[in-house]
Amino acid sequence: MTVVAVLGAGKIGELVLSGLLRAGWPAGKLLVTTRRSARGDELRERYGIRVVDNATAVAEAEVLAIAVKPQDADALLAEIGPKIPADKLIISLCAGLPTGFFAARLPEGTPVVRVMTNTPALVDEAMTAISAGPHATGEHLAVAEEMFKPLGATIRVPESQQDAVTALSGSGPAYFYLLVEAMIDAGILLGLPRQVAHELIVQTAIGSAVMLRDSGEHPVKLREAVTSPAGTTISAIRELENHGVRAALLAALEAARDRAREIAEQSS
Ligand SMILES: NC(=O)c1ccc[n+]([C@@H]2O[C@H](COP(=O)([O-])OP(=O)(O)OC[C@H]3O[C@@H](n4cnc5c(N)ncnc54)[C@H](OP(=O)(O)O)[C@@H]3O)[C@@H](O)[C@H]2O)c1
């Protein structure tokens, strides 16, 4: 198995690391780097993996997964970029940063793959979108898939779609949590105890998600099956449409996509 180093093991880096370990990736084939030594100690204790400096990670690992904040990527690449042999595979987890950003700071010919995952990776239900950047071949994409498949589903997309992916599935869990939070509030408004409202909505969300995934039906069909003539559901749907929920989602995701573009521009 490939030796993978996670450079900048913060929240997302740890999420990848813990997923790889759950999937049976040998701890001996994983390295991490951190900026603060206390963070390194924490990870060493929690996972029994080696915490090294960036130069050692570059020397020993075949795959370098970069998980620093986009605004820290420039400094990291200034430190290690010129030392990276061109046969290492760079996997960027940095939201919004185009692969061209890395290519410009790495030796000519270094393969770069861009990955956008999401936080349900913590329960092995991530959605991870993988794009080939400069010099990345099918084999490089397959390595990225081998790393991210145990964390959930993966999909290959052209890099030009990554800002949209960031808006949809990268930020997506937050929209569902907001919806669930609002529905629990609605339950309280209707007089239900908070715990009961919480239980009702969380299980309804899980059941609906599993049906969406496993039935293969279009969401419109599934919604129609719960919407009887002159019934309760259609009364609620009329209010959702009156309040522009559909239009709000279109505008919200467009704003997230635009923000991803802005971050990329500010970082380059
Ligand atoms: N794909 C997704 O689902 C998704 C979701 C959110 C975020 N992201 C992306 O994932 C990246 C990380 O986000 P995060 O929320 O995990 O941030 P985070 O918790 O701040 O993690 C970044 C880590 O990198 C460390 N670091 C910074 N510079 C370093 C250097 N030169 N050498 C070694 N370590 C360094 C930081 O150390 P300190 O703690 O000492 O500062 C921090 O622990 C971002 O680029 C973000 O865009 C992706």
| Oligomeric state of the chains present here | single chain
Bound molecules: NADP nicotinamide-adenine-dinucleotide phosphate
Rounded to an integer, what's the Rg over CA atoms? 21 Å
Q: For the terminal residues, how far apart are their CA atoms?
A: 34 Å
The helix fraction, in percent, is 40-55%
Task: Report the principal-axis shape.
Answer: elongated
Layout of helices and strands:
Layout: E1 4-7, H1 11-22, E2 30-33, H2 37-47, E3 50-51, H3 54-60, E4 63-66, H4 70-80, E5 89-92, H5 99-103, E6 112-116, E7 126-132, H6 138-148, E8 152-156, H7 162-170, H8 172-189, H9 194-215, H10 219-224, H11 232-242, H12 245-267
Helix pairs in contact: 7-12, 8-9
What features would you describe in this structure?
With 268 residues, this protein is α/β, with parallel strands linked by helices. It has helices spanning 11-22, 37-47, 54-60, 70-80, 99-103, 138-148, 162-170, 172-189, 194-215, 219-224, 232-242, 245-267, and strands at 4-7, 30-33, 50-51, 63-66, 89-92, 112-116, 126-132, 152-156. β4, α4 (70-80) and β5 form a beta-alpha-beta unit. α8 packs across α9 (194-215). The longest helix is centred in the last third of the chain and has 23 residues, at 245-267. It is elongated, with a radius of gyration of 21 Å. The model has no long low-confidence stretch (mean pLDDT 95).
Key terms for this structure?
268 residues; alpha/beta; eight-stranded mixed beta sheet; 12 helices; binds NADP nicotinamide-adenine-dinucleotide phosphate
Produce a short descriptive summary.
By secondary structure, the chain is of the alpha/beta class. The chain has helices at 11-22, 37-47, 54-60, 70-80, 99-103, 138-148, 162-170, 172-189, 194-215, 219-224, 232-242, 245-267, and strands spanning 4-7, 30-33, 50-51, 63-66, 89-92, 112-116, 126-132, 152-156.
